Amino acid sequence: MLSHCLNPSCTAQFRFLHEGRIFKIERTTASLDDSNPQRLVEHYWLCGPCSLALKVVVENGVVTTQPIHPETAAPETAKENPASVR
Ligand SMILES: [Zn+2]
Questions:
Q1: Global pTM?
Q2: Ligand 1 center to residue 61 CA distance, Å?
Q3: Which of 4, 31, 55, 56 could serve as 23's disulfide partner, Cβ 3.0–4.6 Å?
């Protein structure tokens, strides 16, 4: 954990706490006999550029990244509006 950016297509190494963003993920691990579930706290890191576009989520028990704004990921939606016309 925390040795490099969670984005698999990014190679940034974790060096300083003030760079990027740290995500705290809490999970409950259920043991086989269900008698003593344990709370597990894990920390994940996204580098500066990745933390602006991605968030850390748990999907089907797997920690992964998702775009923060999926709708803005498509560049086609960014159409220029004409400036104010008199
Ligand atoms: Zn990154």
A1: 0.69
A2: 22
A3: 56
CA distance 46 to 25: 13
From the CA of 52, how far away is ligand 1's center (Å)?
A: 10
Distance (Å, whole) CA 13 – CA 19: 10
Strand bridging mode 62-67 / 21-29: unpaired
Separation of CA 69 and ligand 1 centre (Å): 17
The domain spans of the chain are 1-29+37-69
The overall longest dimension of the chain from CA atoms, in Å, is 73
Residue 21 Cα to ligand 1 middle (Å): 10
* Alpha carbon distance 64, 59 (integer Å): 7
